[in-house]
Each structure stands twice: as structure tokens, then as C-alpha cells.
């Protein structure tokens, strides 16, 4: 049962990163606008982040989809989510009126159109999925499981042949 829960967590988090990364990659100009709207990075670094972030998200999503290096990827995902939550929180605290750009779009919005609490709660929920996978990375239909069986590291108990004597 816990393996099934982990599988849902892994695939759900994979979907988040794949959709988020694909939407940002599809509109790099808007992604740059969203990154600059946070007003925390110099322009040169904002350009790098706007290019790298969608690629990082896609890589995280692909690794999670495949179930490869699940614990490490969940850790990286958690770190990224904490950074994103901190970015949203600092924007809220500073009184900026922006859309987070978490799933494409982003940038300045009219006062009163921000959704900071919802964005923080949503990303915190995604972070909980990452925490689950950090604590329990074993999932169904994963390359991690397939590779572990190939190395003889399966969690399956070995058959007990101790009661079988020669000729009995």
C-alpha cells in the first residue's frame, strides 16, 4: 500500500515539474518577465535563471517519471520548492503585486489580484510530496526498483532452503 502511495507522490510531483517546465520553456520571454518581477536578481542572473529553471524542472520531472535516483531528485525538488516558496513569501512581504509564474505567465498584476497564500499552500503541498519521497523513495514501476533487483538488493526476502536436506 505504501509503495502505491509513493508511486502516486512520485508521478504527481513529476507531472508538476513537467507541466511547469514545459509551460516556461514554451514562452521564454514571459519566463524572464516573471523572474524579473521578483526583483531579487540582477538582470544578468535573471536571464540565466529564466533559461535554466525550465530545464531544471523538466529534468526533475523526467527523473521522477522514470523513478530514477528518486531520493536525490526528491531532495533537489524540495530545495527548489523551498526557494520558490521563499520567493513568493518575500514578494508578499515586500508588497509586490505579481503572479508567481509558477506555471507559465507571471509578472506584474494589479493590486488585489495576487494569490500569495494559495501559491504558498500549493507549493507546500508539492513539498510534502517531496518529503514523502525523501523518507520513502521506494515506489512501483521505477527504474530504481528495477536497478536494485538487478544488483540483488531487492526488498523481497530470499527463499529459505535451510529445511531442505539432500535427498529429502
TrEMBL record:
Entry keywords, A to Z: Membrane, Transmembrane, Transmembrane helix
Intracellular or extracellular location(s): Membrane
Main subcellular localisation: membrane
Gene Ontology biological process terms in this record: methylamine metabolic process
Pfam families attached to this UniProt entry: MauE
GO cellular component, as recorded: membrane
Domain Methylamine utilisation protein MauE span(s) in chain numbering: 4-135
Transmembrane segments: 45-65, 72-93
The protein, known as: Methylamine utilisation protein MauE
Taxonomic source organism: Amycolatopsis pretoriensis
